[in-house]
Amino acid sequence: MLPPSDSAAPLSRRAMLRHCGLGFGSLGLAALLGPGMLRGADAAGPLALRSPHFRPRAKHVIQILANGGPAQMDTFDPKPLLTKYHGQRLPIHLATERPTSTALGSPFCFDRYGQSGLEVSELFGPLAEKHADDLCVIRSMYSDTPIHENSLRLMNCGASIMARPSIGSWITYGLGTENQDLPGFVVLVPKGMPVAGADNWQSSFLPGAYQGTYLETQDRRGADLIEHLRNPHLGPAAQRAQLDLVAALNRRHQATREDPALEARIQSFETAFRMQTAATDAFDLDREPAHIRQLYGDTAQAKQMLLARRLVERGVRFVQVWHGTLQPWDSHDNIEQAHRRLARECCQGLTALLTDLKQRGLFDETLVIWGGEFGRTPTVELSQGEKVSPTLGRDHNHHGFSMWLAGGGTKGGTVHGATDEFGFRAVKDRVHVHDLHATVLHLLGLDHERLTYRHSGREFRLTDVHGHVVRDLLA
After folding, report:
1. What does the pLDDT read at residue 1?
2. For the chain, which residues score pLDDT lower than 70?
3. How far is residue 122 CA from its own chain's centroid?
4. What are phi and psi of 142, to 5 degrees?
5. Which is it for strands 318-322 and 60-65: parallel, antiparallel or unpaired?
6. How far apart are CA 310 and CA 288, in angstroms?
7. Which of 176, 282, 344, 455 could be stapled to 49 by a disulfide with Cβ–Cβ 3.0 to 4.6 Å?
8. What is the DSSP string of 83-99?
């Protein structure tokens, strides 16, 4: 091959043979050593397994996003004083995004579950009945903004405004993945896009191979989940030869340009080719026994939970599961009806996921995270129309909210931190989103201060210049 400076010059047949002649021996050697040689010296590619900074407690992550913002006082943070003040003005001032009025007591009953006596709302009673002693509930989460787009970017990428790599991208960059035939980072959405769209799983300035692979999961079969999974015209050997030629031409083109999008495209071709066999198996839920499918249930969330288990079982590093399009948990109106419906959609699947991970020996090595981008106010929101009246819903609240972790080296059956007596603001052992990210990386054996990437003249990291590991969450 001619040097890059001459790449635009035409080649005669004699010149082509002269330059390529010594390459025929290399092709023969590559055939003996394996097809990976044709793709360059680093045959395993950018997703090759890498050693963590220290011994990890977890190997995989399933992040379940209740996008929209569940109400902490209606799910995992009981506030009996709200019931006492229901319909009355609270004795504290709350800075809320929209006008709110009097206290809105939770319409749901709380009970204690497990040996730990963990208090959980009836909405997630079935989950707590079986797994209260596995849940590590953080009641003192807080964020920077009550705006969905910004809070989701912060939760997923560590920055609320600027385009930064997502947590799944950072983790696959730091550790690679165990299965080179599947993406290292997979994003599952029933249909459509959440708020902020692909910003939530972007690789930004990291190489494109670390970007999340987005899949709409409304169809069961692998062939339906992924378009053009099979090539109807070429067999695997012919496709491999075609892909190697295209890769060589792309590399030659790339040598004269600095275009990260081209590298992402090259890697996407490779991933798509390898997925033709692996994805057909991994994404086909009908291959699961009937009793397992029954365990999870038949909702869109249930199918996503089962698919997430199948993916981590096959070595996928990070699976992000979204509850639905836009922000389904954004219950500004009639929170009792809305939250009850949403909990029905996901509770059985959540319970089955933890049960299934345990019975397959994957629970201790898989970190499961559940929560939204923020919480909700203890006061009732007022309508914004001509007639001002209570909506029976709650406004956004980033000052204090709840999330839970399970498996992956976390301390089950525990509660960390607390909000004030009305559930508005985190006041004890506060955990910022940066702290959560630092802790997740730590569980995977990564030091959040050492996992860096040089860009625009400085070192970047997921937690920017913030964050500390919350060691009370560790088993």
Report:
1. 38
2. 1-44, 219-231, 234, 258-261, 263-265, 267-268, 270-280, 385-388
3. 26
4. -150, 155
5. parallel
6. 9
7. 176
8. HHTBTS--SS----SS-
Is the CB of residue 390 less than 8 Å from the CB of residue 131? Answer: no
Of the CA atoms within 13 Å of residue 296, those in its CB half-sphere come to 24
**401, containing H or E segment:** strand 401-406
Pair type for strands 110-113 and 375-382:
unpaired
| pLDDT, position 44 | 58
Instruction: Locate 284 and state its tokens.
Output: 């086909």
Helix 433-443 vs helix 167-175: angle between axes, to the nearest 10 degrees? Answer: 30
pLDDT of residue 27: 42
How is domain 47-226+283-473 classified at the CATH fold level?
A: Alkaline Phosphatase, subunit A (3.40.720)
Task: State how far the Cα of 140 lies from the Cα of 398, in Å rounded to an integer.
Answer: 11
* Residue written as token pair 């990210």: 437
Provide the whole-model pTM. Answer: 0.84
51: Cβ contacts below 8 Å, ≥ 6 apart: none
Complete DSSP assignment for 221-279: SHHHHSTT-S-SS--HHHHHHHHHHHHHHHHHHHTT---HHHHHHHHHHHHHHHHHHHH
The residue written with tokens 């220290």 in the block is 54
Helix (H) or strand (E) holding 20: helix 13-20
Question: One-letter amino acid identity for 249?
Answer: L
DSSP state of 200: G
What 3-state class would DSSP assign to 323?
coil
Each domain of the chain, given as residue ranges in start order, spans 47-226+283-473
pLDDT at 381: 94
Confidence at residue 156, expressed as pLDDT on a 0 to 100 scale:
97
User: What number of residues does the chain have?
Assistant: 475
- Alpha-carbon gap, residue 285 to 304, rounded angstroms: 10
Report H helices in 419-474.
433-443
